[in-house]
Amino acid sequence: MSTEKSLFRRISDLVSCRQVLNLMVILGFMLNYALRVNLTIAIVAMVKQTAKNVTDEIVTNGGTNATTTAAPSSAAGESGEFEWDAYQQNFILGSFFWGYILTELPGGRLAELIGGRRVFGHSMLWASVLTLLTPAASHLSYIAVVILRAVLGFFLGASWPAIHPMTAVWIPPMDRSKFIANMMASSLGAAVTMPICGFLIASIGWESVFYFTGGIGILWSICWFLVVFDSPATHPRISPEERNEIETAIGSSTSKKRPSYVPWKSILSAPCVWAIILTHGASVFGYFTVVNQLPTYMKYILDFNIKENGLLSSLPYLGKYAMAVIASALADYLRKTEKLTTTQARKIFTTFAVMTPGLMMIVQVYMGHDRAWSVAIFTIALFLNGAVTAGYLGNGLDIAPNFSGTIFGMANTLSSFGGFLSAYMVGTLTYNNQTYGQWQIVFWILAGTYILGSLAYLFMGTGELQEWNNPPEIGAKPRETEEGVPLNQTKTPQISS
Q1: For residue 360, what are the CA distances in angstroms to 123, 429, 453?
Q2: Are the CB atoms for 366 and 399 separated by under 8 Å?
Q3: How far out from the chain centre does Cα 497 lie?
Q4: Cα–Cα distance between 370 and 214 in angstroms, integer?
Q5: Whole-angstrom Cα distance, residue 252 to residue 242?
Q6: 8-state DSSP, 62
Q7: Which of 461, 443, 465 is closest to 453 using CA atoms?
Q8: Which residue in 23, 403, 8 sits closest to 228, CA to CA?
């Protein structure tokens, strides 16, 4: 036993527990997106393709399965196994969001109560198991796939807001922008997943996509439960120095509990909360529209399908992740050195990340008829949008770390409707009318959405800790505002020297 502890101590001297957490979160969000989009890539090879089927699919799919064109172009010419028409395909792909929306808010609150480790870990584990069952469900019936994908969305919906409560107890306030940037690894996951899945489909078959992503997801989940823990106080291998550094910087101890109830009245009446919700909704709406509708625009207006070029289709995702990392590191540096207050940093980076893409859409209105300009504008818009990690995305941790999961759950619930709304908007405007003039209307709407979202945060956002972050228990005297840890962590285990 002493030898084992000595080995753990030597490992912890080389790699800190926070570094391990960072790596696992990065990989987790990469896999999170892989489990989400694997079907949108594989479905091209799964379905028997006809000229009418392909045309109907592109026109009517909206925002849910536009990325199906990411599969190898040769796959479209091959005979798939299933005779699912465009309606059935969209029914399958849209079902993911039915479950996804349901667990955003409950997932965030549950992570606040029991810790993010279990919520995020089980979310990924069971989503991975369901992914392995997708080929079997496909051969059973398309309704079986619809049910499976809805349940898969139910599990993955809880994963995103679960990270914020974990951030509150593991990451010092001045380093949280960089940690929140790990969530943008989902974009990195998209960049990696598309070419890998395309290769697997061409080499082995569409079933391999689900076995590969599901198998990797299960392996990651096992590692997650072995090396990640809810707080420094409950980590069996953390060094006393690292634990003390974290707890001192956060300013809380394991004897302090998180509130046992949510002060809904204070949260719902707080302008700073609505600033996050509205800006996140606008940003994600723009992101869904650009990413999901771009192939349709490129095909019908510019006679060029961007998704046929694997490298080109990956550039916006890679760029968004790169910007997220760069902007977050810069924001934390400016806050640490007191060159900017937290409020100033959040407002500046949010404006940059959300308003600038809106201005780019105005340029697209006038220059979008040119293929090179269109690719450049969309790529730059997504690249700049990555800076949201230094802006509003982690702002819930500034204003109310005890309820950061709840706040992000509220914001993500609203933004999840962005995919539906964006699909409906584009479909309504361009159905049987694929003209540049109609797409200009789409770009104007995107520009207005982006700009209004950034203005909402500019006027209502703040980085100041709110008084209702730590409300008094019912019947108790008011206490000072402070951060805390999940309710179940009330005992401090002994740490061997």
Answers
A1: 36, 21, 15
A2: no
A3: 39
A4: 40
A5: 15
A6: T
A7: 461
A8: 23
Rounded CA separation 105/111 (Å): 10
Q: What is the DSSP letter of 401?
A: G
For 183-216, the pLDDT digits (tens) are 888 888 877 887 888 888 888 999 999 999 999 9
Q: Which domains does the chain have, with CATH numbers?
A: 11-45+83-230 (1.20.1250.20), 264-470 (1.20.1250.20)
Q: Alpha-carbon dihedral of residues 483, 182, 117, 174, nearest 10 degrees?
A: -20
Cβ–Cβ under 8 Å, residues 268 and 105: no
**Cα angle at 61 between 277 and 71, to 5 degrees?**
100
pLDDT, tens digit, 9 for 90 and up, residues 325-372: 999 999 999 999 999 999 999 999 999 999 999 999 999 999 988 888
- Classify residue 178 as exposed, middle or buried by CB count within 10 Å of its CB (0-12, 13-18, 19+): buried
CA–CA separation, 30 and 17 (whole Å)? 20
Q: Given its phi and psi angles, is residue 338 left (phi above 0), alpha (psi -120 to 50 degrees) or beta?
A: left
Q: How many CB atoms lie within 10 A of CB 472?
A: 11
Cα separation of 266 and 466, whole Å? 10
Q: How many residues does the chain have?
A: 497
Q: Which residues pair with 47 in a beta bridge?
A: 82
Overall pTM > 0.70: yes
Which among 251, 242, 306 is positioned nearest to 469, based on CA atoms?
251
DSSP codes, 300-332: HTSS--GGGSHHHHHHHHHHHHHHHHHHHHHHH
DSSP codes joined into one string, 114-173: H-HHHHHHHHHHHHHHHHHTHHHHHHH-HHHHHHHHHHHHHHHTTHHHHHHHHHHHHS-G
Task: Please tell me the distance from the alpha carbon of residue 331 to that of residue 176, in angstroms, as a whole number.
Answer: 10
CA distance 475 to 483: 21
